[in-house]
Fold this protein.
Amino acid sequence: MRNIVIILMVFASTIIFAQDSLRKIIVNERKIRTYERTIEISGSPDSVFAFMDDIRNTGKHMTENSNAMMGSKLGLHWLSDHKTGLGTKYRWTGKVVGMKMDFTVEVNKWIDGKEKEWGTVGDAKMIVIDWFEMYLVVTPNDKGTTNTKLGIFYTKHRGLWGLLFGKWYSKWCVKSMLKDTKKHFKNYEKTEQH
């Protein structure tokens, strides 16, 4: 009897693990793709995390006109009372090349000063990707700077825009967020030296 219980427990845990793994591979019968980048930033893990935790800092690439946004920008609307931390929720709206963008994002994992995960919830109206989940991990290194890992899981939009630009756009988002953060800390470093 004891062996049967052990076998059932192993079988059940295998099914649970497999279901969680499938979530990382397939969302709504779509292949999940991923992109990740790690860079070194001149700041403490706490200060780098605090800066990147605020979407008003790392979402600049979507709130300002740029070639990548085809001259458009999106509006940011807060749905939660707090702007950082677990459960933070906000909505992006606007138009890019005349097409409507409207999607909600929620922070679903948050370890202060260390780690964060956030992604789309509900019905997302986007042009080149259909769904995303991002993650941030900051760790100190022996140089006194911070190793900053930022990544995205996403599914390409089913149309031509997704095929042509889904991968490029996802990489651009990650790179832009890291570039804006690195630039902020370089500028901060310059003002501290004067």
